[in-house]
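Researcher: First entry.
Model:
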Amino acid sequence: MSALVNEAVRNDTREYDGVPATVTVKGHPVHPMLVNYPIAFLSGVLLFDILSYARDSSFWASFSYWLLVGGTAMGVAAAAAGMADFFGDRRISRLTIARLHFLGNAIVVCLSLVNLALRMNASAGPVSLSWLMLSAVVVLLISGTGWLGGEMVYRHRIGMIPRGTHE
């Protein structure tokens, strides 16, 4: 994946002075405000899945389940704001790095929904190995897409007000 991301960054060499976010509150972009929650919650799911699986404990599985509910809900909210930014400005949607970020996060939300559906239909008990594996894949993906999001902000100035302007 690293080679793919490095190639995307090299291909997107156009420097922008700033591309403001489409969805803002008093000039502050909403997407970066929301993404911290699914990153933290879904990372917590993996932590509590490991505890539940290792200790064969339904106690830790309940923590994991509720973090998964919150992480998925906040992931959907962050995705809505991110989609508005992605489709709201062609300068964003034509960046390879933005498309990788978008696709990766769409996969994260879908896998989290699948993980949630599997758990909702199961009896209360410890976490299964398949749930733990899904959580691990989600954390790997969200780590990469979070890094891509940072690249867009700090290298391409996506979601930033252009220099010399005030909203």
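Researcher: Second entry.
Model:
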Amino acid sequence: MIKFETGKTYKSRSIGDHNCIFSHEILKRTAKTVTISDHGDIVRRKIMIRDGEEEIFPYGRYSMAPILKASRQIV
């Protein structure tokens, strides 16, 4: 399974604008949640597992919400 790692930054693209990229750093994690930094705001989000990979909704769940996946790490 691909998991989020503390101290790493992950990215996702906007559904409506391909040039808009969201990036978030994982500050800490538990088995069920991650705490992320969103340009100064610190929030905790629930981890979901899909196809053997962890993912979160950094801004909450809505129709065109970005999804951060553990495989999309910024190197």
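Model: Note on the second entry: Residues 20 and 70 are 19 Å apart (CA to CA).
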